[in-house]
Backbone:
């Protein structure tokens, strides 16, 4: 149980284009999803928290108009990087938590496999 | 402010040797504590977690961790390391609330020598 998938696993795009990354909870209802960014050899940086049906809460310094997050259902959240530039190249990881999870509930996050974004 | 410190950036152990990865946290009360492992180019896998109760927690892949309140520590241990354990290990703390947000340490890279 507690499987989270991400699609695509890897994407290369041209500067100025927009890229959408999907995060799905496969076997549980994710009431909350989190989006992280990870630079090489570094820890995870939380970008935003999204609750199903609500607007995402962005961390300080994260541009909400550039990183659009939608959490329209209990199993799907999307991150859209708008007008991507080379400095947006990074590894993006989502995680999910939910009430239906045994032994952890909303306080345990399960992570997706990540998406490698390269902007040329 | 809440924080997590993993003092060892890089650790090398021989296969079959024991392992201890250190984690210290700063938090006003007893937080929720987690250890995750990340293989190159992959997401994070939950190894174990502590919410309350027995301070020695058993996880997957033969790992265990001990919560020591007096030392504000949650060190990860394994009695005999396997080559497949080579990865990045992250300690994280969460506040017992409905936000579910985690604060991660900087990570420890484990290298296993044959």
Residues:
């Amino acid at each position: 149980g507690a499987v989270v998938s991400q699609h695509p696993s890897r994407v290369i795009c041209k500067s100025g284009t927009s890229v959408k990354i999907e995060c799905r909870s496969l076997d549980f209802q994710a009431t909350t999803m989190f989006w992280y960014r990870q630079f090489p050899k570094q820890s995870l940086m939380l970008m935003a928290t999204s609750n199903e049906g609500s607007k995402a809460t962005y961390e300080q310094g994260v541009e909400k108009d550039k990183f659009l997050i939608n959490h329209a259902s209990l199993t799907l959240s999307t991150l859209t990087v708008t007008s991507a530039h080379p400095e947006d190249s990074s590894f993006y990881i989502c995680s999910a938590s939910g009430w239906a999870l045994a032994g952890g509930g909303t306080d345990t996050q399960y992570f997706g496999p990540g998406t490698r974004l390269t902007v040329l | 402010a809440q924080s997590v410190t993993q003092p060892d950036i890089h650790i090398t152990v021989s296969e079959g040797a024991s392992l201890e990865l250190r984690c210290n946290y700063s938090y006003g009360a007893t937080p929720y504590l987690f250890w995750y492992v990340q293989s190159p180019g992959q997401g994070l896998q939950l190894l174990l977690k502590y919410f309350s109760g027995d301070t020695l927690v058993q996880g997957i892949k033969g790992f265990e961790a001990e919560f020591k309140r007096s030392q504000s520590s949650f060190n990860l241990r394994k009695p005999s390391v396997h080559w497949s354990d080579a990865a990045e290990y992250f300690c994280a703390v969460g506040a017992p609330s409905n936000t579910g947000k985690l604060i991660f340490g900087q990570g420890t890279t484990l290298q296993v020598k044959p």
